[in-house]
Amino acid sequence: MTARRSPWLWGAATLLAVALLAVSAALGVTVYGMPVVESLMIAATQSAGLLIALRFPRWGLAVLTIAVISGLTLAQPTATAPWPVQVTSLLALLATYVLVALHGRWLAAVASAALIGITASGVASGAGNTVPGGPMVANLIVLLALSTITIGITTLVRAVRAARGELAEAREVSELELARRQIAEERTRIAREMHDVVAHGMSVIQVQAASARYRFPEIDEAVADEFDELAATARTALGEMRALLGVLRADDGAEHAPQPGLGDLPELVARSRATLTDQLPGSLAARMDPVCQLAVYRVVQESLGNAARHAAGASATVSLAPEPPAPAVPAGVRVIVQNGAPPADRTVRAAPDPSGHGIRGMRERVTALGGALSADPSPGGGFQVTALLPIVPGTQLTLRHPVSPEEPSA
Q1: Where is the Histidine kinase/HSP90-like ATPase domain (predicted)?
Q2: Residue 339, beta-bridge partner list
């Protein structure tokens, strides 16, 4: 609103300054017996002080005060017109006091009014019997009364506006705190439900898998090893679940929670019983943004999980290679996760997820960073996921081979 009112304020002040210049210069010559040049200079200085006060309140007030005091000393006493303070000077003073008080400089306005009042009293007392005392006293009373009322009301208005601004700011802070509290409560509720539903089930799986070797001593060693690996995977999942629950329960720990990156890929691939055929050069991995590294990790994690669910027992390979830079495009990272067909004696452990959150979630994560992802059946009955991610988020990259329009959901 201030920006919209500013042109109107400048326009009104300019009109008032021009009107005061014309009227004050004419009255100074015709009524108060001032020379033409001096009357014009004093009127121009008064108008200039009013305009200067719009941008520099104290400087404008100082210029106007000097002009009014100069007019008091040069004007000739008159019994028919207001004296010693002219009406035009009074109007210029009141307008300037408003501007100064709105900027919080009310003490300067009070000092100016007091200085002009003292000077006007001295001029009036020196006039002797030239002008009756009643009109001069009335003129001084009007000056001091209007100045006090103007400064007081303007200061009160400024205080009310400041109080309203502080109240609005406090209300905004209160609303933000309330929103943060509601978010924290919702995150705590989600964490509690995840602990009750998921963590408890994972704990049961881990305990049963870890104790299978001892509860069933007659099982084959290979089967016992499978149970041990299942227990290790469950323990790792429980650790990640506890970290996630800690992030959800923390008020501001989400941004600072450690996230997996390229350095965690070998452990993930080994835990999934896959093979990591190629890795990125250390220099390229160090340049890769942590958000992109997390995307690589999640793509590999989801792809290996899909292979374990839909092609149990099949071999899987993971390869990471630098993507050669195209013209004016920085280098990216190509991630390929490929699994073969499941053995003939194995069956699919789980039906495809109808929600399609696996491949769809991977594609949304990758494309949000500017990359691309394709998921297609490979020759021989296997499946291949290819993702191209940039080094820095936001760089648009495109896969060199077309993406199949018909992709299974995982």
Answers
A1: 294-391
A2: 316, 383
Token match 């009160």: residue? 156
DSSP 169-230: HHHHHHHHHHHHHHHHHHHHHHHHHHIIIIIHHHHHHHHHHHHHHHH-TTS-HHHHHHHHHH
Q: Distance between CA 213 and CA 226 in Å, rounded?
A: 10
Amino acid code (one letter) for 245: L
From residue 238, alpha-carbon distances to 98, 104, 193, 357, 398 in Å are: 69, 62, 15, 22, 37
- Residue spans of alpha helices (H) in 253-394: 265-271, 282-287, 290-310, 357-368
The β-bridge relationship of strands 275-278 and 372-378 is: unpaired
Q: Could you report the per-residue pLDDT of 183-194, keeping only the tens digit for each?
A: 777 777 777 666
- What pLDDT score was predicted for residue 129? 62
Q: Which of 168, 123, 113, 102 is nearest to 143 (CA)?
A: 113
The CA distance from 314 to 337, in Å, is: 13
Handedness of CA 359, 364, 366, 372 (dihedral sign): positive
Q: Which pair of tokens denotes residue 16?
A: 């008032």
Cα 197 from Cα 229, distance rounded (Å): 23
Q: With contact defined as beta carbons under 8 Å apart, do 356 and 410 qualify?
A: yes
As a 3-state breakdown, the chain gives helix, strand, coil percent values, each rounded to 5, of 65, 10, 25
pTM of this structure = 0.47
Q: Which residues of the chain have pLDDT under 70?
A: 1-5, 127-130, 192-197, 199-200, 245-258, 325-331, 344-357, 394-396, 399-410
3-class state of residue 348 by DSSP: coil
Q: Determine contact, residues 46/67, Cβ cutoff 8 Å.
A: yes
